[in-house]
Amino acid sequence: MADIQAMQTDARSLADDLGIVTRDLTDKELTRFGRSFERQFVFALPERPLVDIYLRHQKEALLGGMIAKGQMENEVDDEQPGANKIGGPLAIRACWLGIGDDWEDLDSIYAGVQGTWTTGAPQDWIHAGTTLMGGTTGNAVRIGENAVHVVFGLGSLHASPKIESTQFTLDGKQKPILETFFTQKSLPGAVRCIKELDNAYIFKRDTTVHAHVFISRAFGTTVTNVTDYPYLVGVSYIKEPALRLQDPVTGVGRVLPGTTYEIVHTT
């Protein structure tokens, strides 16, 4: 407990430096945070390098919980929160950023093959024009009031990754590209492909997010069989009503985006 309390003090100082409004977690909430974090991101992960990434960014993950408490005006209550409380820390779910059912559920642009990309030019990844979002291709998504995401890395779920780099535009400001080096790590037995950030991106209420990926023409000048499945490494805090929604699209119409759950919006 003493270690997590000290971590909260450091996180509070970081929030002050960034000008971010937070609320301190109680000892009960800190206990839940520590227990949930270890269960999901330390004990459950088989690869030590990935565990180390989570541990290096634990203070930023805790800061996300402090932001969420102030933003959503309720207590942080572990993975399965009580009614209208805040769930977290949680692994980042693809639908909470408007991607689709999961990180592999990307819009196809070639013969119905999911996760297929055009080589040699930046391609929209996180944006308002996905099937789930139903907005304008190339526009950013906007984070709703019932979600906070702390992103401290990105990875690929593909057995043979192709992505050379990614680039984020946050609140209309284009960030420097992130070279992934995924293609150099796609050997049999290699550690899962992860690109760690120096400092986490924090997506809170009204943050706009637009992300691109780039795949070299070395993999072909057509989109045939050029597939990859990028995903975000980090933690999320989500208001409980949205955590009861297993299928982000139920029947006809789009359920998760919009004002019902206040998780993600088109722009």
What does this structure look like?
By secondary structure, the protein is an alpha+beta fold. The chain has one domain (2-266). Helix content is 22%, strand content 25%. The chain has helices at 2-18, 27-41, 48-56, 58-72, 240-243, and strands at 86-91, 123-126, 141-143, 147-156, 163-170, 173-174, 178-179, 194-203, 208-215, 230-239, 264-266. Strands 2, 3, 5, 6, 7, 9 and 11 form a seven-stranded antiparallel beta sheet that branches. It has a four-stranded antiparallel beta sheet with strand order 1-10-4-8. The longest helix has 17 residues, at 2-18. The protein is globular and about 55 Å long. Mean pLDDT is 88; it is low at 108-112.
Provide the residue-averaged pLDDT.
88
Low-confidence stretches: 108-112
**Biggest sheet, open or closed, and with what strands and sense?**
7 strands, antiparallel
Terminus-to-terminus distance: 42 Å
Give the total of beta strands.
11
Structural class: alpha+beta
Give the count of structural domains.
1
Radius of gyration from CA coordinates: 18 Å
Query: Helical region count?
Result: 5
| Percent in strands | 15-25%
Subunit organisation of the chains: single chain
Helix proportion range: 10-25%
Offer a few descriptive terms.
4-stranded antiparallel β-sheet; alpha+beta; 267 residues; 7-stranded antiparallel β-sheet
Question: Helices, strands, pairings?
Answer:
Blueprint: H1 2-18, H2 27-41, H3 48-56, H4 58-72, E1 86-91, E2 123-126, E3 141-143, E4 147-156, E5 163-170, E6 173-174, E7 178-179, E8 194-203, E9 208-215, E10 230-239, H5 240-243, E11 264-266
Helix pairs in contact: 1-4
